[in-house]
Amino acid sequence: MSEQDTEKEEEGQATGEETQEKAEETPADSLADLSELESIKAELQKEKEKAAKELAEGEEEDEDLREVDYLQKLITLSVKFDHHVGMWLMTAYIDCGMKYDHRLSESYMSQLATIQSFLRLLEKVDGVTRELVTKDCVVKLRNSVQMIHKNLVKPLFREVELMKKKPKSESLELFKTNWNERLEDLQKACDFEYQVLDVKGFFIK
Q: How far apart are CA 165 and CA 7, in angstroms?
């Protein structure tokens, strides 16, 4: 065998060995790539779960803030109804020369005060308890307003309508304006929790 043939044979063997080495290296490299890919996917999944958790916590916080804001509005409503009955309605009765039933009025104001107390307690509570008691307070507030309208408001304005000479009473006008405004607020509050509760029948025309 010539020296040239020997060199060619050696080159062929070297090339075969390199090819074999590359073939052996390829699976290892692929496994490394797959491992890195799995690691990236795992990191992305963690980030996704973290983002979802933060979003859920943010939504819960927003919902809690909405509930607290709703409670504040209900408390303000009950306080204002209490004030309207105890202040302007009583004065309107006097201005119109009609007898004001203090005991009946005080019983309604006591109901409103109780509702206020429950609502204030709910500011420190969350979850299902708050939701259930809030709904109950909305119903009770609506019922109290209904009874005030039936037994105190309606009789007064019915008598005023029958009077030939209308009394000049600033309290009467203030009560009417504010009563109707509060009813609009109460209707919104009812719509927030209940779609069937209606207070439109208690408006003063």
A: 132
192 within some domain: yes
86: its two tokens: 């105890």
Closest by Cα among 128, 115, 46, 30 to 80: 115
User: Tokens in use for 9?
Assistant: 């044979």
- Determine contact, residues 153/179, Cβ cutoff 8 Å: yes
- Residue 19 is predicted with a pLDDT of 47
Q: How far apart are CA 181 and CA 138, in angstroms?
A: 17
DSSP string across 133-190: HHHHHHHHHHHHHHHHIIIIIHHHHHHHHH-SS----HHHHHHHHHHHHHHHHHHHHH
In a domain, 34, yes or no: no
Note the pLDDT of residue 191.
Answer: 78
pTM of the model: 0.67
Q: How many domains does one find in the chain?
A: 1
Q: Evaluate whether residue 3 is within a structural domain.
A: no
**Separation between Cα atoms, residue 182 and residue 175, nearest integer Å:** 10
User: Which of the given ranges, 16-30, 31-45, 157-171, 180-194, has the highest pLDDT on average?
Assistant: 157-171
pLDDT of residue 112: 93
* Residue 32 CB partners (closer than 8 Å, separation 6+): none
What are the distances in angstroms from CA 117 to CA 33, 47, 69, 71, 77?
A: 65, 44, 16, 11, 13
Domain encompassing residue 100: 64-202
